[in-house]
Write a structure and sequence with these properties.
53% of the residues lie in helices and 13% in strands. It is α/β, with parallel strands linked by helices and 716 residues long.
Length: 716
Amino acid sequence: MTPLAAAYVATAAICLVVALQHLVLAFRVPERRIHMLFAVAAGGVAGDAFVSRATYGATHAHEFLGLMPFGALFIVTTIVALSLFIAFRTRAVRMWMVVLVAILGIATVVIDFTTGIAYVGPVDFNHVTLFWGESFALPSGETNPLRLIADLTLIGFLVVLLDTTVRLVRRGDRRAAWLIGGSLVVYSLSLFMIIPVDMGRIHLPSLHTFAFLIIVAAMSWDLSDELIRASRLSREVIAGERRWRQLLNDVQLLVVEIDLNGLITFMNPFAEQVSGNSAGEMIGRYYLEFVNDNERNEVEFAVERGLDGDPASENERTLVTHEGEQRSIRWRSVMLRDVNGNPEGLLSIGADVTERRRSEARLEHTSVELEATVRELEAVRTKLEEENVYLKEEIGARAEHSEIIGSSDALLYVLHKIKQVAATDATVLIQGETGVGKELVANTIHQEGDRAAGPFIALNCAALPANLVESELFGHEKGAFTDADRLRKGRFELADGGTLFLDEVGELPLEIQPKLLRVLQDGLVDRVGGSEAIKVDVRVIVATNRELRSEIDAGRFREDLYYRLDVFPITVPPLRDRREDIELLVRHFAGLLAARHKVLIHEVPQEVMRQLEAYDWPGNVRELQNVIERAVLTSSDGVLKLVGPLDGRSSDPQPSSARENGRLRTLEDVERSHIEEILRVCGGQIAGSGGAAEILGLHPNTLRSRLNKLGIKISK
């Protein structure tokens, strides 16, 4: 089997496996539509790979043209399925764009199956030999004007990817923006290669099949990763539910749950014991069957109020037991809501006060016990709900941490300071430029300290609007402001017993700073709309890339808060001040990212390493990681290659003006200008790694021929 045929077969096999995997998942997860669409898209890529293999192995033009409509069918199926998948998954796609792409795709397929969309008239059929010696079928002939519809379908999908990426960036969804943006880059490159092929400049088979393979693989990895995170979250929720149910089973109070229709859905063992009825006899029956006849109207009114969101504080009612005995039960109800905040039912907690009627002392004691236990139950319920909400908010937002990489003296000094302060509860101020890894330092301090078993809660102060910072930090009571339909704990309460990391603390609004100062001084948190201070035990670590002294002089930061934060300062050096760490970081990121993107990287050339070590890295470690990721994605032979110059700008030259000296520029003028710009960026280098031929996607000899034809001379 030839290399090209093997590549198509491997692509088809991979995509078929992915399609089957997500087809199975579609019947096992709630997001059935998303996995079904993705399975269709992967199947379309597999079908296109099979058709492409047959097409490029055709022996005559009639056979080639007969296969082309099926290739168009599979490509259109893939594009439409992927567009719908992205729309339903990200909620950031203009649906009219997807509809337009679908209409154009259907028109393409219909025309291709009826009259043919690629050529009109006779078709010349040649076999072209690739540079490794393999030949493939390549037709040529007069282009069909209707081919514009097919081109618009391909460009339409490109526009969908671009528009979605821009919307995701504006929305702040970095993970999805990286995924769709990466797909945009891969798809754009495959479309870009069509131009020189159509112009006859190079002879290569179409690369769109392999571009779709990369896109499908990346999106399948993202979907699988999300399922893993959802599984972890589910285990946390199940564990919390188990603790909640255990508490209900052990508490010496009657606990009865009813749904919106008034049917009993749960009762704990103590309720069975007091009522004399088993749970099997009670569940599914109407609650009024067990209420004294003279109290039915009052109880029914109280339950209706509770289901409307206004449960009565406390009431004493008569419970009719299985033996017909009437027992006095003091009830307190709690509204049950689902994860979306919608009413789900009513949880009634009752204490048997029959004996209390006969003794005032016992009445007082049991009443206090009831109130304390109910508060405990409400606190446990609220804590579980808040932990559940926080875990869902953190999915996809928490970055993956790894150990601190480096052996420079500057970094070793930072590690020494971390070791000094980790075992204490001192407030730490981490300073450093953007991208140096301040959150990683904070997380390391937490993990090496006595609070490692507690939560590590992070909040980026610069990422929140000023009117939401107070609620996020300190929480709010129900009804504190518009849309505050439930009590919500702030980050300080969620971090109780652990560590709270406040990134970009210099961005805190001035009016919030005194409240933060109070928490640091007294350990007391005031929820928005609350009347009581809440005691918390939290270690605070803050970070900033600003010079807080200058902020104090400008009146944007309180001096007393600064002295409270500046207990143990740690300055993380920029990457340019620890260049000896660059090689370790490069090899670490190359291995990590190669494994993530399923790319083999076994060599980092010394010339590449010298370029990386010579660069100043204004974006620090984050910029280095991005550069290495781009290099990994574009390296195909196991040798790491840089995409372009390390000057902070894109390696793609900007488009020139369509006019020059008052006249419209010809295609030759534009081509000459483009090649001259690439040569300038590459310093006149034509061949080799990072040369102009590699960037332009041309063979060096082909590029030299173009230079001679265009009259471009290379300055030595």
